[in-house]
Amino acid sequence: HDKCLRDAHYKSVIAPQVTVDSQLVKKVYAFTTQRRKLKHLFAENNEQAERLYQRLQNGEDWDKLAEEVYTDDIMKNNSGELGWVHWDQLEFDMAMAAFTQPHKTFTKPVKSSYGWHILYIDNYEINPLLSEDDFNLHQNDIRLLVTQRLGDRIASDYINKMMTGIDIKVRPDIMKKVGQHLEQTLTRKPNVFDKMENFQLTEQEQRKIEGDLWQYRNEAIVIIGDNEMTVSWLMGSLAYIPYEALYKSFKTTLDFAIRDFVITKEARQMQLDGKFSEVNERTGIFAEYSKQIMVRRKLVKNTRLSDDEIYNYYEANRDELFKSVSFEETKEQIKQILLAKKQRENVSKFIQNLRQQNPICLLYTSDAADEEDSVDLGGRR
Fold first, then answer.
1. pLDDT band at 373 (very low <50, low <70, confident <90, very high)
2. Average pLDDT, the chain
3. pLDDT greater at residue 267 or residue 193
4. What percent of the chain is helix, strand and coil (3-state, nearest 5)?
């Protein structure tokens, strides 16, 4: 529900400010067929970035500045190299700076959601064979891409202004405990497909985090103005924070969570769930979907196979499939085949049963129902 409120906030506040003209779309289309090899110097604020820029302007060596700027040995030794990048891998301002800057030169300081950057264009590749037909084929997708990136920039500026003057107090003891658990769990390296997913955590990661942090769930981890952001709220928000940020550091994760907390609060004050019907509609759809998943999971978990079923399958298919293999050698493989088949059949039978009954059929067996795996159907467990 909170995520849907934030989406409604974006549509209500940010989207009306985004304008994209045809010339920008054409320019970006050309950039999306190219790539640049980049280095960068990072600074936490504009003042630091401007000092670095002036030193470069005065002729100081890029590599020596990189050694000074970075504490990470890899970035220090490779002069802040980012490697080959495409336009859509960068935030809007960084992408436009990198792809309009001449070869073997560096940009002015550019702001991103992480800080400030000076980019050096080390090499480039351009596709010179672009036709009007190609552009016409892709222009709608490019317009959508540019709209999203401009929206991200406007949203970033908006939230930065929102945060100005807000009193934020953190609880270091709770932060340390939560941060340690997240660091132990979020070990999967980010990849290019993460941004395509609605949920940034796998089910296993989400379950482990909830289990590890359950005892702290009612503790306030951050106090924002007069409002407490609890560990429980943080756990719920993690699935919507870019995995790249989750993986980078707990500080970055917390920055995103605080941002989402403040936006959610403003969306509630604006009563956007009353102005945008899709907020409650999408929330309801997701609630029903979650119940379906829980029911399917329960059915699958309760599926059982007897040794006789496994042996009978072996005997029935021995001449065709298992001529030179003993029952003991293939027993486990047969079990997996039959189990998957039976699980599918159980789900199908359950659905057919529901169609014949009104209003609800409970699915428990006396030996399988436990509190952890119980299914909430319309308020009944």
1. very low
2. 89
3. 267
4. 60, 10, 25
234: closest CA among 252, 249, 253? 253
> Hey, what are 60's tokens?
């100081």
130-136, long-range: CB < 8 A, 24+ apart: 130/29, 130/30, 130/33, 135/26, 135/29
User: What DSSP assignment string belongs to 157-224?
Assistant: HHHHHHHTT--EEE-HHHHHHHHHHHHHH--SPP-TTGGG-S-SS-HHHHHHHHHHHGGGTTSEEEEE
* DSSP type of residue 293: H
Strand, coil or helix: what is 336? helix
Residue with tokens 């293999």: 325
Q: Please tell me the pTM assigned to this model.
A: 0.72
Decide: 156 and 215 in contact? Cβ < 8 Å: no
Q: How far apart are CA 350 and CA 290, in angstroms?
A: 17
Please report the DSSP string for 84-151 in residue order. Answer: EE-GGGS-HHHHHHHHHSPTT-BPPPEE-SS-EEEEEEEEEE------HHHHHHHHHHHHHHHHHHHH
Share of the chain above pLDDT 70, in %: 94
For the stretch 37-67, what's the b/e string if a residue is b when 16 or more beta carbons lie within 10 angstroms of its beta carbon?
bbbbbbbeeeebbeebbebbeeeeebeebbe
